[in-house]
Write a structure and sequence with these properties.
It comes from Galerina marginata (strain CBS 339.88). Helices cover about 65% and strands about 5% of the residues. The protein is mainly α and about 325 residues long. The chain has one domain: Rhodopsin 7-helix transmembrane proteins (Rhopdopsin 7-helix transmembrane proteins), CATH 1.20.1070. The strands form 3 sheets. A two-stranded antiparallel ribbon has the order 1-2. The chain has a two-stranded antiparallel ribbon with strand order 3-6. The longest helix is centred in the middle third of the chain and has 30 residues.
């Protein structure tokens, strides 16, 4: 993708990339630009749609480490999506230097978004340091994988113009996506197991466990909301992330199309992870279950919140069915 066609006849306007690239590649780059612009539009819409919730978080909640991480995640993801559109559409020049800065933004976006889900796990497993430490190491692996982008992604100019495009990719970048998939999967399973195991149960059977896991059967309203919110994040991201990783590693697909799914995948991860964070910070679980007076198996003694060390804690007491 980073090579320019030297034998392609030049058009009447030598300042466009079409004068220096084969027509099929120009078509692919045009589709890529449409995808990038569409992804940025969805991200902006999500930000505007949640302005009220973000305002409440910043004004009615104490600003602590999780809130700062949330802001970094949102802003860095928006910044990456914005600069990729500018990178693909504007003759900015200095492509090699700019792509390194962009890659740093990407590493921050991926790491901070994954950290939000780790904080969720840390709050639920706050009494088990071994689990917390193990997943912290896994999060560090996510950071390492995302930093590989800064090393392997390159930018190049198109012919003698100042237009930029992405250069070649290596398998190291694909590994960063694989690490994120593994991290999200294990965090989701760990949280789901904890939520189900601390809930009242009359015994464990395969059918009952499957019903509890997939439908929240016999779970208190709070636990069911906590479980299903995690499932909403997982089911909407893990399959897309897995598909993106496979496509990125497929040599039979055009390099342009292989990188096409990266931005939508990052945007979806951020939108869903931040949705879970907002629900937690604003007490959506508590509010959604307070009206269900018939559910007496779980009593919420205080809203779900974050402690001073940045972890989430849930103060609950079980009184039996």
């Amino acid at each position: 993708m980073n090579s320019t066609a030297t034998n392609v006849p030049q058009s009447s306007n030598p300042l466009t990339i079409a004068a220096y690239l084969p027509p099929p590649l120009v078509f692919e780059l045009t589709i890529l630009t449409y995808v990038y612009v569409g992804t940025l539009s969805v991200m902006i819409w999500d930000l505007l749609n949640n302005l009220k919730a973000d305002y409440l978080i910043l004004t009615e909640r104490r600003i602590r480490l999780p809130t700062l991480i949330y802001c970094v995640s949102r802003l860095s993801t928006l910044a990456w999506l914005l600069v990729t559109v500018v990178f693909q559409t504007t003759p900015i020049g200095h492509c090699a230097r700019i792509i390194k800065v962009m890659s740093g933004i990407l590493a921050v976006a991926i790491s901070s978004t994954s950290l939000l889900f780790f904080l969720r796990l840390r709050g639920i497993y706050k009494d088990n340091n071994y689990v917390v430490f193990s997943f912290f190491i896994l999060w560090l692996a996510v950071c390492g994988g995302s930093l590989a982008d800064a090393i392997t992604i390159i930018g190049t100019t198109v012919g003698p113009t100042n237009y930029c495009t992405f250069g070649s990719f290596t398998s190291k970048v694909s590994m960063s996506g694989l690490v994120v998939v593994v991290d999200d999967t294990l965090v989701f399973l760990a949280i789901s197991w904890r939520v189900m195991s601390i809930s009242p149960s009359n015994g464990w059977t395969l059918k009952g466990t499957a019903a509890k896991f997939f439908r929240g059967t016999d779970l208190p309203a709070f636990s069911k909301a906590l479980l299903q919110d995690g499932q909403a994040y997982y089911l909407n991201t893990i399959f897309f992330s897995f598909a993106t990783t496979i496509i990125t590693n497929s040599d039979s697909i055009s390099p342009v199309y292989r990188e096409m799914f990266g931005n939508p995948n990052l945007m979806l991860m951020n939108v869903m992870a931040c949705r879970v964070f907002r629900n937690t910070m604003l007490g959506m679980y508590t509010n959604s279950t307070s009206a269900r007076t018939s559910d007496r198996s779980l009593q919420i003694t205080r809203p779900i919140s974050f402690n001073r060390q940045g972890g989430m804690f849930v103060s609950t007491s079980y009184t039996g069915a």
